[in-house]
């Protein structure tokens, strides 16, 4: 077993037995540290023999940049003050898109909480909107991220806006999140 070279991540594994009996299972624990922001999920290569022939499986690990989020609680005043500070065009990524799934409030909240950031209540002047805040922790830096999701139930559309202190993170998170809704 090996991981494709991904210099943005430090991956540590514990050794496992080289032989697995038929029908048996083993668990391989991976400890992943984010060194800097990244866009592509790491690939896990598994090589084994079956019936004497060498087999090779490549699996995409479900590791995305949001897995390194630390939720950040803040007041409405603090949120919009920071929102204004992140005003450089390259710090913002925005996407308007049709809802892929229903627009159920509880499902939306669960998806936003699953992102890893803090879902902030009573922050946006429009009670239909959702706002989140968090910091992506990497070994080299902390990347502050603010999110605003504006649903339009009549049109079954969303406007998703992300502002982050690092532009590549804004764009990547916006793409990643738009797929979820």
UniProtKB/TrEMBL annotation:
InterPro entries to which the protein is assigned, alphabetical: Adaptor_Complx_Large_Subunit (IPR050840), Clathrin_a-adaptin_app_sub_C (IPR003164), Clathrin_a/b/g-adaptin_app_Ig (IPR008152), Clathrin_app_Ig-like_sf (IPR013041), Coatomer/calthrin_app_sub_C (IPR009028), TBP_dom_sf (IPR012295)
Highest taxon, organism lineage: Eukaryota
GO cellular component: clathrin adaptor complex; endomembrane system
Keywords, comma-separated and alphabetical: Membrane, Protein transport, Transport
Coiled coil: none
Topology of the protein relative to the lipid bilayer: Peripheral membrane protein
Pfam entry (one): Alpha_adaptin_C
A biological-process GO annotation: vesicle-mediated transport
Principal subcellular localisation of the protein: membrane
Subcellular localization: Endomembrane system
Domain Clathrin adaptor alpha-adaptin appendage C-terminal subdomain as annotated: residue spans: 68-177
Ranges of residues in domain Clathrin adaptor alpha/beta/gamma-adaptin appendage Ig-like subdomain: 7-58
Entry similarity comment: Belongs to the adaptor complexes large subunit family.
Protein name in the entry: Clathrin adaptor alpha-adaptin appendage C-terminal subdomain domain-containing protein
């Amino acid at each position: 077993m090996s991981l494709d070279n991904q210099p943005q991540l430090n991956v540590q594994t514990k050794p496992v037995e080289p032989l697995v009996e038929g029908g048996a299972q083993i668990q391989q624990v991976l400890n992943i540290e984010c060194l800097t922001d990244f866009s592509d999920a790491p690939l896990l290569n598994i090589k084994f023999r079956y019936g004497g022939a060498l087999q090779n499986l490549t699996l995409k690990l479900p590791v995305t940049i949001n897995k390194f989020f630390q939720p950040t609680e803040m007041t409405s005043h603090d949120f919009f003050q920071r929102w204004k500070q992140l005003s450089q065009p390259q710090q913002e990524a925005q996407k308007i898109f049709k809802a892929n799934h229903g627009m159920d409030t509880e499902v939306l909240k669960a998806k936003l909480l699953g992102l890893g950031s803090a879902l902030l209540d009573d922050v946006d002047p429009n009670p239909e909107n959702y706002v989140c805040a968090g910091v992506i922790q990497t070994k080299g830096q902390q990347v502050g991220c603010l999110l605003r999701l504006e649903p339009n139930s009549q049109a079954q559309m969303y406007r998703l806006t992300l502002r982050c202190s690092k532009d590549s993170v804004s764009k990547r998170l916006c793409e990643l999140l738009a797929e979820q809704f």
